[in-house]
Specification:
Layout: E1 23-24, H1 25-32, H2 36-44, E2 52-53, E3 59-61, H3 63-77, H4 82-90, H5 96-126, H6 140-147, H7 153-163, H8 167-177, H9 181-203, H10 211-225, H11 233-245, H12 247-256, H13 260-274
Antiparallel strand pairs: 1-3, 2-3
């Protein structure tokens, strides 16, 4: 498996024994848990450049080099683009601790969401009739109360007509089937909280391509939508087009803060570009 697609958990720099001569690329790759190719790439782009060479010309990593490498890997695991990681690490005016604190908050929220999903899976595994019905027991009135004033039975009917044959629809229905009334209430409260934070960001003048906006985009992707089915940045971009193109979505966000629909779409597209995704060329994955 390529290390770019796996979770990175590295030992602390102090826990890695480094001789005075330093460690070779192969030794660092094995002890830290990344590929030699990744280390070469980091060196080529100036992100982590070992400061020493062996008598034969091979790269040798010092303790300081490994500490820098581990910082890079943490940021990469958090979803930052490599160019932005270099700015965070090298720019003395950047408050790196504040960025890490913000990312820690997002990670905590993601962990909580994953724990909810584990509970949902446990519920489904224990429901013997799950294969016979994926319809939640909530009545239309209860669903309206759970999702707030924006709920309309016509939306559900339209969505089922358009997406009912997709894997995402089936996944969402299974998630909903495992949820209690309290779960729906909690989901509505969390989504309203995310909307409020998005609106406040726009009022505060946060740029759509800023780190602050990217953090909110991740929260929106992971919790507002990702609670129902598996989300990717490409899917997020496609869904965001509806925020400006569909009058109902646009009205929802404009009621929160004028200009929010366009701002959110711009922020989602900026986040995609920062991760090498062209918003104009995405497809549903």
């Amino acid at each position: 498996m390529d290390d770019a697609t796996r979770t990175t958990t590295t030992p602390a720099a102090d826990a890695i024994a480094v001789s005075d001569a330093g460690l070779t690329v192969g030794e660092v790759a094995r002890r830290v848990g990344v590929s030699v190719r990744t280390l070469h790439h980091f060196d080529d782009i100036g992100l982590v450049v070992p400061q020493a060479r062996s008598w034969a010309g091979y790269r040798l990593y010092s303790r300081a080099d490994i500490a820098r490498l581990q910082r890079v890997l943490v940021y990469r695991e958090l979803g930052f683009a490599l160019a932005r990681i270099r700015e965070l690490i090298d720019d003395p005016d950047v408050d790196e601790r504040a960025h890490l604190a913000s990312q820690r908050e997002l990670l905590a929220a993601r962990i909580a969401r994953l724990q909810q999903m584990v509970c949902a899976v446990d519920t489904m595994m224990g429901a013997h009739d799950m294969t016979k019905s994926t319809t939640p027991d909530l009545t239309p009135q209860e669903q309206a109360e759970a999702f707030g004033s924006q709920w309309d039975d016509r939306y559900a009917a339209e969505a089922e007509e358009r997406w009912g044959a997709t894997d995402e629809w089936e996944q969402a229905e299974r998630v909903k089937a495992s949820m209690s009334r309290e779960d729906f209430d909690r989901a509505r409260t969390e989504m309203e909280g995310i909307d409020a934070r998005l609106a406040q960001a726009l009022r505060d003048g946060i740029a759509p391509d800023s780190d602050e906006a990217a953090a909110l985009v991740a929260l929106h992707r992971e919790q507002a939508i990702g609670r129902w089915f598996t989300m990717t940045r490409a899917k997020h971009v496609l869904i965001a087009r509806g925020y400006t193109d569909d009058p109902r979505f646009r009205a929802h966000y404009e009621a929160l803060e004028p200009g929010l629909a366009a701002w959110l779409r711009a922020a989602i597209e900026a986040d995609a570009r920062a991760h090498g995704i062209d918003p104009e060329a995405v497809s549903w994955e």
